[in-house]
Amino acid sequence: MNYPEALIKVYKEDLGIKTMFDWQVECLSQYLKDSLETGEGNLIYSAPTSAGKTLVSELIMLRNLI
Question: What pTM, to 2 d.p., does this model score?
Answer without folding.
Answer: 0.78
